[in-house]
Design a protein that fits this description.
Strand content: 15-25%
Radius of gyration: 22 Å
Oligomer: single chain
Distance between the termini: 26 Å
Helix content: 25-40%
Strand order of the largest sheet: 1-2-6-5-3-4-7
Number of helices: 15
Structural class: alpha/beta
Length: 448
């Protein structure tokens, strides 16, 4: 990770860690970088948080001042930006979003011309420019100055693309959607309605400060109650920029990304569509997923946490399905990044084609209890490298043996160290997570 760019773009509290000056500088560099040999075309989308408009204008100013033409998708999802970039031959795309973070955070995600996350070397060059270490960039003048174009039609084309993917209509299916008061508010319901579902939606009234607030994939309790109270067949919860999706079965039980990988992967295997008979996961995936995949003869690979790393593995090895427990699921036939709405469509397709409920499709997975505690710290590296913290981690590893595991890692997007234990019981998980968390706190690394 660089000074500003983490695993999912440049993210931080708006006008504290990520300022309008930062956004302007990012725009200046990208506009110049992609306009060196031709008139650059760059597309921008944003989520619903209040500061997204501010950053949009700052980016546009920087981009056009460097000579690039900017096409505005307005409020839309991260995967829609990726789709528009690669299908309509833009030089790059920018999504203004902090994903699942609180409304006061924001971020700049940059997508290259292939619809992938921007290369690390280009991010490094941007960082040097921000810090004044890369020299000056000339301003465009006269007719070389860029222009701004309303491009809401790009979002509409993406909606049409989503509608074309399912193999069957969703007629008479009662579906609940939690839009997290975020980007999916402008898209998800229209897609499900067009496919024939009886669609029931919550948290689709964004006001700039309610994005992800007690709703969406990070606070799925509301959807669980909503599905049960209304007798729905299934529910789907997205995050702020809709690149994640978690599901809820008809009994209100959460179906996380691991379970979705199992459900869709086993269906794809049956159809002969699971390339290399392999699913790509991250080190955070549950033991239960691997044991279930072993039973049905599906192979798997593990990457570092981040859908960026999942997709890199998929491209390098020719795999077509991968994802994270958090709900970033990638179907490489259809997308180059996690896409929450697409994921919900693929789960629906599996249910309809196999004529089974979501609870039936997930009944064969035995999920190991897992506890994750996020510790906000002053310095992620110092906290994780502390000898006493490492000693505590090693002691937990030895105590768990082959009956569980511990994973301690830095967040790529927040000043947080994540401590996760997976074991046979909740009590064991709780005991050993606290053992490490308490050491982090006792050594003074935790923010009070």
């Amino acid at each position: 990770m660089g000074k500003y760019f983490g695993t999912d773009g440049f993210r931080g509290e708006a006008n504290v860690d990520l300022t309008v000056e930062h956004a302007y500088s990012v725009g200046r560099y990208l506009g110049w970088y992609y306009s060196r040999n031709h008139k650059a075309r760059i597309v921008i989308g944003k989520d619903t948080r209040r500061s997204s408009y501010m950053f949009e204008y700052s980016l546009v100013a920087g981009l056009t001042a460097s000579g690039a033409d900017v096409y505005l998708l307005h409020v839309t999802t991260t995967p829609s930006v990726s789709y528009v970039v690669r299908s309509e031959e833009f030089d790059c795309g920018i999504m203004i979003s902090a994903s699942h973070n609180p409304y006061y955070d924001n971020g700049i995600k940059i997508i290259n011309g292939k619809g992938h996350k921007l290369e690390a070397d280009v991010e490094n060059r941007i960082e040097k420019y921000i810090d004044g270490l890369a020299g000056k960039i000339p301003f465009a003048t006269k007719d070389s100055i860029g222009r701004t174009v309303d491009y809401s039609m790009g979002r509409n084309r993406y909606i049409g693309y989503l509608m074309s993917i399912p193999t069957r209509a969703f007629k008479d299916m009662k579906v609940g959607l939690d839009c997290a008061n975020g980007s999916s508010s402008a898209i998800a319901k229209s897609v499900f309605d067009a496919l024939g579902a009886k669609t029931y939606v919550i948290n689709n009234s964004p006001d700039g400060v309610n994005i992800n607030t007690n709703c969406g994939s990070t606070h799925i309790e509301g959807l669980q109650q909503f599905v049960v109270q209304n007798g729905l067949d299934v529910g789907f919860a997205y995050d702020g920029d809709a690149d994640r999706c978690l599901a809820v079965d008809e009994f209100g039980r959460v179906v996380d990304g691991d379970m979705i990988l199992y459900v869709c992967g086993s269906y794809m295997k049956e159809r002969g569509d699971l390339l290399n008979n392999t699913i790509v996961t991250t080190v955070m995936s549950n033991f239960g997923l691997y044991k279930s995949l072993d039973k049905i003869g599906i192979q798997y690979e593990k990457t570092a946490v981040g859908d960026k790393y999942v997709y890199e593995n998929m491209v390098q090895n020719g795999h077509c399905l991968g994802g994270e427990q958090s709900g970033h699921i990638i179907f490489s036939k259809h997308a180059t990044t996690g896409d929450g709405i697409l994921t919900s469509l693929k789960v629906m397709e599996t249910m309809i084609e196999k004529k089974k409920t979501l609870s039936e499709l997930t009944s064969e997975i035995e999920v190991y209890p897992q506890l994750l505690i996020n510790v906000r710290v002053y310095d992620k590296k110092k906290a994780q490298d502390d000898p006493d913290v490492q000693k505590a981690v090693k002691e937990v590893e030895e105590a768990l043996g082959d009956e569980g595991r511990i994973l301690v890692r830095e967040s790529g997007t927040e000043p947080v160290v994540r401590v996760m234990v997976e074991a046979k019981s909740d009590d064991i998980c709780h005991k050993y997570v606290l053992k490490v968390v308490n050491v982090i706190k006792e050594k003074g690394h935790a923010v009070k």
